[in-house]
Design goal:
With 262 residues, the chain is of the alpha+beta class. It has a single domain, classed as Deoxyribonuclease I, Chain A. The strands form 3 sheets. A 6-stranded mixed sheet has the order 3-4-2-1-14-13. The structure holds one DNA strand of 15 nucleotides.
Length: 262
DNA sequence: ATGGTAGCTAGGCTA
């Protein structure tokens, strides 16, 4: 059962319902994982998605902040949700496809501006979220699984516009990269996007604060698609839809796609 | 060093 999967930090699913619909019409992924829905689950505008064949939805939500959703043309079996770092936020949800593959959709805390947990509680929460993720993978090694989402960390030098200038900027500090790498290794996760596109600059997010984001191109790769080795072997054709960042009233993130021939 | 923009929701928090 081959399928195409996409992940996109939508920054309000209600405000950007028309953009979601445009993406579904243009690219028709089988599964679309959204982050930062900023909506209670019962207020997600699912009718417009269902009309395009996306009849299945598994989500966690809260008013105003966070929120994750898995939207699918294929049936979804809800697997549940974790509350890593005990924040009580809607940052994870998981669902199983008919072929048995479990999809984990994460929105990792951004972590505030100061990369020091003594001075900034939110940075500590971000590291704790990743540590809890690592522990969960050590306790229960994932199998036949995909993990996607806004992980809010750009791990590689070529995942940011300037490695040197971002070393002390939250999202690219060494301690964050260490925590993310520990989680990745604990789950034996393969970075599918970099398996398919091994070389060169690759970004999925450009700040709203940068005028002329396209020309300046001060991006970071914060959005990721990981898979367990067996599933990753079946992956191909990964791409980041940079053009979507240039749509009218855009999200600050571009969608990331991967195809799986399973 | 600072400020730059956006969403939610009505002043400030979060990103």
């Amino acid at each position: 059962m081959p399928f195409t999967l996409a992940t996109w930090n939508i920054n309000s699913v209600r405000l950007r319902e028309p953009l979601v619909i445009d993406l579904l019409k243009a690219e028709a992924p089988d599964v679309l994982c959204l982050q930062e829905c900023k909506s209670p689950v019962d207020k997600i505008p699912r009718e417009g998605f269902a009309a395009l064949g996306y009849e299945h939805l598994v989500a966690r939500g809260q008013k105003g902040y966070n929120g994750v959703a898995i939207l699918s043309k294929l049936p979804l079996e809800e697997v549940g949700a974790e509350d890593f770092a005990g924040l009580g936020h809607a940052r994870h949800v998981a669902a199983r496809l008919p072929n048995g593959v479990v999809i984990h959709n994460h929105y990792v805390p951004a972590g505030g501006d100061i990369p020091d947990r003594e001075k900034n509680e939110k940075f500590g929460q971000k590291l704790d979220y990743l540590t809890d993720m690592t522990k969960a993978f050590e306790a229960d090694r994932p199998k036949d699984a995909i993990l996607v989402g806004d992980l809010n960390i750009a791990p590689r030098e070529d995942d940011v516009w300037s490695h040197k200038q971002l070393l002390k900027i939250v999202s690219h500090t060494p301690i964050e990269v260490e925590h993310l790498t520990a989680a990745q290794e604990a789950g034996d996760w393969v970075d599918v996007t970099r398996k398919d596109i091994p070389e060169g600059p690759l970004y999925s997010w450009w700040s709203y604060r940068s005028p002329d984001w396209d020309k300046a191109d001060k991006g970071r790769r914060l959005d990721h698609v990981w898979a367990t080795p067996d599933v990753a072997r079946a992956a191909s054709g990964s791409r980041i839809l940079r053009d979507v960042r240039g749509w009218e009233k855009p999200s600050d993130h571009a969608p990331v796609f991967a195809h799986f021939d399973l």
